[in-house]
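Handout for the seminar on molecular recognition.
Each group receives one record of this type.
Step one: identify the two inputs.
Step two: read the structure output and locate the region that could contact magnesium ion.
Step three: write two sentences on what you found, then compare them with the reference statements printed after the record.
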Amino acid sequence: MTRIIAVANQKGGVGKTTTAVNLAACLAELGSNVLLIDLDPQGNASQASGINKSTVPATIYQALTGHVPIDNAIVQTPYKNLSLVASTTDLVGAEIELAQLENRGFYLANTLRPAVSRFDWIFIDSPPSLGVLTLNAMTAAHGILAPLQCEYFALEGLSELLQTIINVKNTLNSHLNVFGVLLTMYQHTVLSRDVEADVRNHFMGKVFKTVIPRNVALSEAPSFGMPINHYSPKSTGAQAYGALAKEVLIRD
Ligand code: ATP
Ligand code: MG
């Protein structure tokens, strides 16, 4: 059965894209057939998975707005078992266009439907807002993976995210669950340890055992268009995302 996971947190810069790309790539390396959907107009996930946005035949914007079928927008990345639907800045327009439509929450779910059964995992990289694009990601998904940066304000805004998940569950998608909370950019400091204790206390079994360390290779890899397991397989970042992939397979 396909698992569709939206990586979401309206806070910017917490590791959504890093997690979507590298978890997708590590699961692909373990043999799963994985599709990564870049649903952020910034297009960072497209670049980080080695796809030149200007050369793709079609983008998520064209698929969402009904101009092309989703299959026309799915491209094979340079990495085995890893496919991608790219995004470009024109996706900003979808945020506005979709907001005016009835059933605006269902566009991504409907767009993806013909392709879903071909993949074991579909990851959706969401933008840093709780706007209509993130709403579409939540409606299309079975689970939310929420990265939390190990810093002082980690829990800030989280109640808003959880309330949105509850609202979507009650209205648009009764199957939606919190797939897991992921601690990112962990450092061996008192602050990181305190944040971890706080988050584990708050979310209990929902927090992944695997914690992602702050690791410079993780921040370098996107500029080479390489997921971490290809860019620096021995780095602590690659080991952490590899461990997360294994944990996710067991949890599933
Ligand atoms: P946005 O909200 O803008 O979409 P995001 O939540 O997707 O941001 P990322 O783009 O994944 O966050 O990460 C923000 C920045 O931090 C990036 O420059 C990324 O390379 C860096 N980064 C993410 N995770 C780590 C890590 N574990 N170690 C070091 N750098 C990291
Ligand atoms: Mg991002």
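Reference statements: The first strand starts at residue 3 and ends at 7. The mean pLDDT is 95.
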